[in-house]
Design brief:
By secondary structure, the protein is α+β, with helices and mostly antiparallel strands. It has 2 domains: about 325 residues, Bira Bifunctional Protein, Domain 2 (BirA Bifunctional Protein, domain 2); about 100 residues, Alpha-Beta Plaits, CATH 3.30.70.380. The chain contains 13 helices and 17 strands. The strands form 4 sheets. Strands 3-7-8-13-12-11-10-9 form an 8-stranded mixed β-sheet. Helix 3 crosses helix 9 and helix 12 packs across helix 13. The structure holds adenosine-5'-[phenylalaninyl-phosphate] (FA5) and magnesium ion. The site of adenosine-5'-[phenylalaninyl-phosphate] has 23 residues, from strand 8, strand 12, strand 13 and helix 9. Adenosine-5'-[phenylalaninyl-phosphate] binds next to strand 8, strand 12, strand 13 and helix 9. Its main location: mitochondrion. It is found in: Mitochondrion matrix. One of its GO terms (molecular function) is ATP binding. It catalyses: tRNA(Phe) + L-phenylalanine + ATP = L-phenylalanyl-tRNA(Phe) + AMP + diphosphate + H(+).
């Protein structure tokens, strides 16, 4: 075909993002609603609660030791996002249902760890902080949004430059120099599964123990700072405020790029909330980054989760609001962190629930149904594309398989509610009608 080379270079095979041109292929799955938000960079927007939270956490990591990076480009290679961190090829995080792809080798970063290896390779400081927007295809509810913000941190020590090559002694000395806190920590040292979280081959037990202690103290100081500021703001709002006993705990976790690994959880509104992942950096990452004599820790913390605790912000969509009733509440805080106030919610507008029930295409409900396997994130994205931030949550409330035909039926309830005004029933109906149509057109379902 004489036209084939012409056809493959038609404009539609390229996409322009953030001033760069990318070749699309059949991995491309980035909807315009996400692409259009890439430029927002809430973590550096003056007086935005995400930016305020970043600044408070940064204040606990002195800039003489930690270099701050707040402007890394959001589009990275799969090498940076996955391979450099030791993600196995079949890791679910790599799939199109979980990650936004531009093409087979290019993604919107799913975590700030995507930049770890590059910064270790620069070898320009003993520590670093990286704050950035990250992207994940995910559920829709009050604590999940497809774009959120993380802060990555790492601290390393070099066998070649510490006195006598004694890493453990050097780290314990730095640990002793850290401030103390009087927060109660439940499970400061949870037991570690020997296969999932072994001591790394190139590490001595006392080295890993010292690094873990330095990591945990550094993070506990962050949490203590956040809670003391949150408490002050609560007392300012209500002088009779009686705080609940703050509870935090360390739990064992697994990451391909740290061992041993921990998550930190905070007891909040009746439940344990995970706020960060952390651990002793996999020595292979250091070796591949050309700094094999360095050893240290890393963590990644969710800035929205911390900001929600700090300001008592009830819904993650609020962070994206351009409404003055939201933004004006934080003005001036970055010039004077002591003026930080609790968020005062504006009135809640009525919810509008709409249900949709459908049969999945038979090929997608059967095992190994070709390339058309159904994934819940596909529904989430269709709803989000149409309803945008006017959707509060999407919940599956029924599911069954027909005993004879083997076909599967699903029912979802969508809650249409704006944070900024009352939606009319007509508006909700028209969103819902579009959702129903798109489910048929894009997923090939049969409406019931
Ligand atoms: C990570 O992303 C690891 N890169 C963290 C890490 C870094 C571990 C360095 C070890 C060393 P995880 O997927 O658990 O891990 O996310 C880390 C934090 O991001 C979570 O604890 C949570 O606070 C936040 N987070 C994760 N998913 C969401 C979401 N959908 N919405 C809001 N915050 C989220
Ligand atoms: Mg996690």
């Amino acid at each position: 075909n004489p036209f084939s080379s012409f056809l493959t270079t038609t404009p539609s095979s390229k996409v322009d993002l953030q001033g760069q041109s990318y070749e699309k292929d059949d991995w491309f799955n980035l909807p315009p609603t996400i692409a259009s938000q890439i430029a927002r960079k809430l973590h550096v927007q003056k007086d935005h609660p995400i930016s305020i939270t970043r600044a408070i956490i940064e204040s606990k990591f002195p800039s003489q030791t930690y270099k701050y990076h707040n402007d890394f480009f959001p589009i990275v290679s799969t090498l940076q996002n996955f391979d450099s961190l030791g993600f196995p090829l079949d890791h679910p995080g790599r799939s199109k249902t979980d990650t936004y792809y531009i093409n087979k080798g290019t993604v919107l970063r799913t975590h700030t760890s995507a930049h770890q290896a590059d910064v270790f390779r620069r070898n320009e400081s003993e520590g670093f902080l990286i704050s950035a927007d990250v992207y994940r295809r995910d559920a829709i509810d009050r604590s999940h949004y497809p774009i959120f913000h993380q802060m990555e941190a790492a601290r390393v020590w070099d066998r070649k430059t510490v006195p006598n090559g004694d890493i453990a002694a050097a780290v314990w000395k730095d640990m002793e120099a850290l401030p103390k806190h009087n927060m109660t920590v439940e499970d400061p040292n949870p037991p570690m599964h020997p296969e999932r979280n072994p001591l790394q081959k190139k590490h001595l037990e006392d080295e890993a123990a010292a690094i873990a202690a330095h990591l945990k103290r550094s993070l506990e100081l962050v949490v203590a700072e956040i809670f003391s500021r949150a408490k002050k703001a609560a007392i300012m709002a209500n002088p009779d405020f009686a705080d609940e006993q703050l509870k935090v705990r360390w739990v064992e976790a697994y990451f391909p790029f740290t061992s041993p690994s921990w998550e930190l959880e905070i007891f909040w509104q009746g439940d344990w909330l995970e706020v960060l992942g952390s651990g002793v950096v996999a020595q292979d990452i250091m070796t591949n980054a050309g700094v094999p004599s360095q050893i240290g820790w890393a963590f990644g913390i969710g800035l929205e989760r911390i900001a929600m605790l700090l300001f008592e912000i009830p819904d993650i969509r609020l962070f994206w609001s351009q409404d003055e009733r939201f933004l004006s509440q934080f003005r001036g805080v970055m010039d004077n962190l002591d003026s930080l106030k609790r968020f005062v919610p504006f009135s809640k507008y009525p919810a509008c629930y709409k249900d949709v029930a459908f049969w999945l295409r038979s090929s997608s409900s059967a095992a190994g149904g070709g390339g058309s396997t159904f994934h819940e994130n596909d529904i989430m994205e269709i709803v989000r594309d149409i309803g945008g931030d006017n959707v509060e949550d999407v919940v599956k409330f029924d599911e069954f398989t027909h005993p004879k035909s083997g076909r599967k039926s699903l029912c979802y309830r969508i809650n249409y509610r704006s944070l900024e005004r009352t939606l009319t029933n007509e508006e909700a109906n028209s969103y819902h009608e579009e959702v129903r149509k798109a489910l048929v057109e894009k997923l090939g379902v049969e409406l019931r």
